[in-house]
Design goal:
37% helix; 17% strand; alpha/beta
Length: 253
């Protein structure tokens, strides 16, 4: 899964926000074309269809309004989810998880799928059953801030690895991993910048450590120096260019 010589994995946050609206098929198509690992957010509609949406409400990124869970998928599918970003993307729709899995299936693409909020075992199964049916369970990592959701995922499909997302890691990483069944921890760049020692502490517990959302050259340089197992960035293209420039400068030196 290593996609960079400088950090373990480069993950396109919501597909990457550089040249397409977040959490849309055009964004994921571009991420796949550049060889990035995908990252997205999953919520359930009123009729229990897993859709890709970061915010609790649809106001910011669609022509609709209100919480995701108050709308059926048919209602969401009629909304424009691209014009807010650019008129070039007018008519782009809110995608379902199934559309994303269908897109990534033939390409060998990996994806980090974050389940937003708290989910029951039955709700988790709506996601894991789809992943299994598309034959991509070996290319998916599930993630959540919520311990209850991670525990429910372990019941729904324990063979799919899980990541715990935590804005700060103040407890024993090994205990957190045991509670959640996680193979790694995703934490914030803000926290890592103030507590770089935590990276080694998490790794010594036998866990991977990834950081979100790493968007500046200062943060990229810090990520490289700390030996992170992965970064999540809105700017995967710019990160790639920065790596090439930094590598060339090092070779010339």
């Amino acid at each position: 899964l290593r996609t960079s010589a400088t950090v373990g994995v480069v993950i396109s946050h919501r597909g990457g926000l550089e040249s397409a609206p977040e959490n849309t098929i055009p964004a994921f198509e571009q991420a796949i074309a550049r060889g990035s690992v995908l990252e997205t957010d999953i919520q359930l509609t009123a009729d229990s269809v897993p859709v890709l949406m970061h915010d609790w409400t649809i106001d910011r990124t669609t022509t609709g309004s209100g919480p995701v869970w108050e709308h059926t998928y048919e209602e969401l599918s009629r909304l424009d989810a691209g014009s807010w970003y650019s008129s070039d993307f007018a008519g782009v729709r809110v995608p379902t998880l199934e559309e994303l899995l269908d897109l990534m299936q033939p390409h060998g693409t990996w994806a980090m799928l974050e389940l937003k909020g708290s989910w029951t075992v039955e709700q988790c199964a709506l996601v894991t059953d789809l992943i299994e049916s598309y034959g991509v369970a070996n290319r998916v990592i599930l993630a959540s801030f919520d311990l209850v959701t991670l525990q429910a995922l372990s019941v729904a499909a324990d063979d799919i690895p899980r990541l715990l997302i935590a804005r700060e890691v103040n407890g024993d990483p090994a205990v957190l991993a045991k509670l959640s069944g996680a193979v790694g921890i995703v934490t914030s760049d803000r926290f890592i910048s103030s507590r770089p020692d935590v990276v080694g502490r998490i790794q010594r517990a036998g866990l991977g450590v990834m950081v979100y959302t790493v968007n500046t050259e200062t943060a990229w340089e810090r990520a490289v120096k700390l030996g992170l197992d992965g970064i999540i960035t809105d700017r995967p293209n710019e990160f790639g260019s920065w790596v090439e420039s930094a590598t060339a400068s090092s070779a010339n030196y």
